[in-house]
Design a protein that fits this description.
About 35% of the residues lie in helices and about 25% in strands. With about 280 residues, it is of the alpha/beta class.
């Protein structure tokens, strides 16, 4: 049996009372399990309940009913030290340097000042901000702010990293660098939970996904299984003309056709997403 970092059972959350005294149902009894060591994508249209679920996971909001466990326990201040978090629109004190901001985050997570300083330098190097570490955040570009946000989320070496729209506002190079950082986190044995509207980003990074729609889980599971990518294989070839294509499955090597790339086929994630949320 797989070990789950996050377990959510029958989670419900109401907001306010509404104009007629009725609560607004943000989460409607969702069940969710995030495997250890996975990159888990939390998807859904605006208002589906993604941010609400993340806030409950972090202990920033309380559910009305249901169970939410992280590392097998209810969220507590001590447990939050094992979690790193990058919000969708991070705001940092503009008069602080990147180094000062990340060091402060490390200290707030319980690290000694000397250890926090060295960890901050290392985290900034890993996200490509080593040369800009002593520059004020007010002078950073949007992409640099996202990078320093990732550095503060990971400086204390958490076991679980939660990223809310990590590529928001990034140019293609910045988005690619962010994706590399997420893969690196998984390579270090961490579990990553990420919310995103960019289907191509999720499809290239995530091992598992859950799709929220109107406060409910519309679909969840291993990404390859959901998209039926385990049943089909696509082979990309160079130098194959019309005649060779007809015989390629049996005689590719004998005809001198080189296979350039091979991968799992299936329906695109964006098409699957539209299918389950409608």
């Amino acid at each position: 049996m797989p070990q789950y970092i996050i377990e959510i059972k029958e989670l419900r959350k109401y907001y306010g009372s509404g104009i007629r005294g009725l609560g607004i149902l943000a989460l409607d009894g969702i069940d969710l399990q995030v495997p250890e060591g996975s990159i888990f994508g939390l998807l859904g249209p605006n208002g589906a309940g993604k941010s609400t679920a993340i806030k409950i996971l972090l202990g920033l909001s309380r559910q009305n009913s249901g169970l939410c466990l992280v590392f097998g326990k209810k969220v507590s201040p001590q447990l939050r030290k094992r979690i790193g978090y990058l919000p969708e629109a991070p705001y940092f004190y503009k008069f602080l340097t990147g180094f000062e901001m990340v060091r402060l985050s490390a200290e707030l997570c319980g690290m000694a000042r000397r250890d926090a300083a060295s960890a901050a330098r290392r985290a900034l190097e890993l996200v490509g901000l080593g040369d800009a570490a002593d520059r004020r955040i007010g002078l950073y570009s949007k992409g640099m702010v996202q990078r320093v946000g990732l550095a503060q989320a990971t400086v204390h070496n958490p076991d679980l990293v939660i990223l809310d729209e990590p590529a928001s506002g990034l140019d293609p190079i910045g988005a690619a660098d962010m994706a590399d950082s997420i893969r690196r986190l998984r390579g270090e044995g961490k579990t990553v939970l990420m919310s995103s509207h960019i289907m191509s980003e999720v499809e290239s990074l995530c091992t598992d996904v859950a799709i929220l729609s109107q406060g409910k889980i519309a679909a969840s599971g291993n990404l390859d299984s959901l998209l039926e990518r385990g049943k089909r294989t696509i082979l990309e070839l160079d130098g194959a003309d019309g005649d060779k294509i007809k015989k390629i499955s049996d005689y590719a090597e004998s005809m001198g056709v080189s296979a350039k790339a091979a991968g799992k086929g299936g329906i695109p994630l964006e098409k699957y997403f539209r299918k389950v949320v409608r």
